[in-house]
Amino acid sequence: MVITLYYAPVTCAMVSWIMLNEVHAEFQTIDLNFRKKDHRKTEYLTINPLHKVPALVVNEKVLTENVAIIQWINATFPNEVVLPTNPWEHFKAISLLSWCSSGIHPFLTRMNNPKKIVGGSDNTDSVIQIATTEINECLQVADIMLGKKEFFFNNFSAVDVHFFWCCRRATQFGIALKRFRNVQRHFHFISQRQSVKKLLHYEASVIQKFETSQKA
Ligand SMILES: N[C@@H](CCC(=O)N[C@@H](CS)C(=O)NCC(=O)O)C(=O)O
Q: How far apart are the first and last CA of the chain?
């Protein structure tokens, strides 16, 4: 089986990258430089016409969306911990992954590029303000959900990684986690995981590679 992950630093593609590492999959990563609009180039549009990462290519077949990729990883590596095995918890995990992907992520996208929402108008402040309020509400809900637990479920799962990405992106946009003690603790705990540390190291090396190529 030949597995390739299309990835870009800082993006939610890190969720799939980390989970492929968690299951010890052999895969290659293709790094896209968003600053150079690699994701808008014909070569990538033939992989994902929606110009988003992650995209997973398995034996020349393309799968997009973290929620789908995670379920593929779970089905392909049944001996590894990706999603809870208890049926109810399994679907509860899909529900939480979908929440990260479609309930939290869109507000992070707005914070990243408010112009996309307001078009020609300069009124980006209100977009950022509304997105901040929505993200804080999500963090509050997650804080209660987590309580004193280490993970969202009894054991580690992909939900912990997806939520970690949401929190990391939120902090990059200036949202403080300290109001949410359980979320902050979870964030720190997940950041210490081997696969996450490996990703952060990889991400730094890709950013460095892009910066060097920019200067050349
Ligand atoms: N729901 C998708 C979101 C994918 C997504 O929006 N990716 C962003 C990076 S975080 C992207 O590639 N944006 C580039 C673009 O939209 O052109 C998933 O979880 O896979």
A: 36
